[in-house]
Amino acid sequence: MPVFRALSKVAQQALLTPACGCQSLTVAIRNISFSPRQVTSGSDASFHSVSFSETDHPKVLITGGLGQLGVGLAKLLRKRFGKNNVILSDIRKPPSNVFHSGPFIYSDILDYKNLREIVVNNRITWLVHYSALLSAVGESNVALARAVNITGLHNILDIAAEHGLRLFVPSTIGAFGPTSPRNPTPDLCVQRPRTIYGVSKVHAELMGEYYHHRYGLDFRCLRYPGIISADSQPGGGTTDYAVQIFHDAVKNGKFECNLKPDTRLPMMYIDDCLRATLEVMEAPTETLSMRTYNINAMSFTPEELANEVQKQLPDLQVTYEIDSVRQAIADSWPMNFDDSNARNDWGWKHDYDLPELVQTMLNFIGSDSRIAQAN
């Protein structure tokens, strides 16, 4: 009762003060909750993951769900855990096929209260945090990238720790910089990225590991290479050329690449990426020697990719118009990932190499193109 009386008194005072008092009321109410934001005592700061029976399915929330990976991951997880146990979320309106494929909800990661309500009301146990501005887009709007990639992450971390969630946050090849070893790049080395996207991802890795050690948060992170998928359009990343080449090759037989022909970067087909994400989330805690892992499948240059595509489409014409911003970013990134820890710890193994990737992409996009022409 004294707590409620005190809260009532604060609320009455706030209503009688100018508009600035509204912020004071918000802070007073929020301080009553138990969150790492308010905890100062080391003895009280224990937010260990809520365990659930091995026979129970997790209840999963995916933020940024309408990006390149969210829809595909939701499809994979729904097959494994059931349609209603995986909730996609985003700030955009979903296309009809996504909306009718399973639960979808509006979620703004910059709105702490909205996120918290979603987690509580839906009894979320796993949170996959895909919301982010990618490398090239982030450089064109640093303020927005900072808000989404850093402030949004802080909201996610606090809520995940408070409610004992298992949290997955992807990292990237962009988390490394020009002083990092590039061929191969190990899990632990100098990073020092030069983009706001990369800086925010290093921040995510370190904050997640800190919350794991400080609060017991079950944080898991994979550094993705460039991800190639046929059923989504490029989203503003430096490795987007490796997706665009297939669309242009099938559509008009011409492709203009914005990176130099000898720019080598690690890549992965989306099915391998999504499977790796599920596997690391399901991995027993005792098998994880670290909380942030490199994963890799293949490494190639634009010229090598074009040559492989031309084996299937000999008439493809490839030209190069270098984007100086994207080229500078690519030149600071790893050429090849050392993912031996992921392979040793939890059995990571990729399925797609370059020939299989090219065949799969052309089959998928070519089929879609023929259907579109028929319609």
TrEMBL record:
Belongs to the NAD(P)-dependent epimerase/dehydratase family. Pathway: Amino-acid degradation; L-threonine degradation via oxydo-reductase pathway; glycine from L-threonine: step 1/2. One of its GO terms (biological process) is L-threonine catabolic process. Pfam families: Epimerase (PF01370). InterPro entries: Epimerase_deHydtase (IPR001509), NAD(P)-bd_dom_sf (IPR036291), NAD(P)_epim/dehydratase (IPR051225). Its EC number is 1.1.1.103. It comes from Phoxinus phoxinus. It comes from the Eukaryota. Catalyzes the NAD(+)-dependent oxidation of L-threonine to 2-amino-3-ketobutyrate, mediating L-threonine catabolism. It catalyses: L-threonine + NAD(+) = (2S)-2-amino-3-oxobutanoate + NADH + H(+). Residues 60-295 form the NAD-dependent epimerase/dehydratase domain. SUPFAM superfamilies: NAD(P)-binding Rossmann-fold domains. PANTHER family: L-THREONINE 3-DEHYDROGENASE, L-THREONINE 3-DEHYDROGENASE, MITOCHONDRIAL. One of its GO terms (molecular function) is L-threonine 3-dehydrogenase activity. This is L-threonine 3-dehydrogenase, mitochondrial.
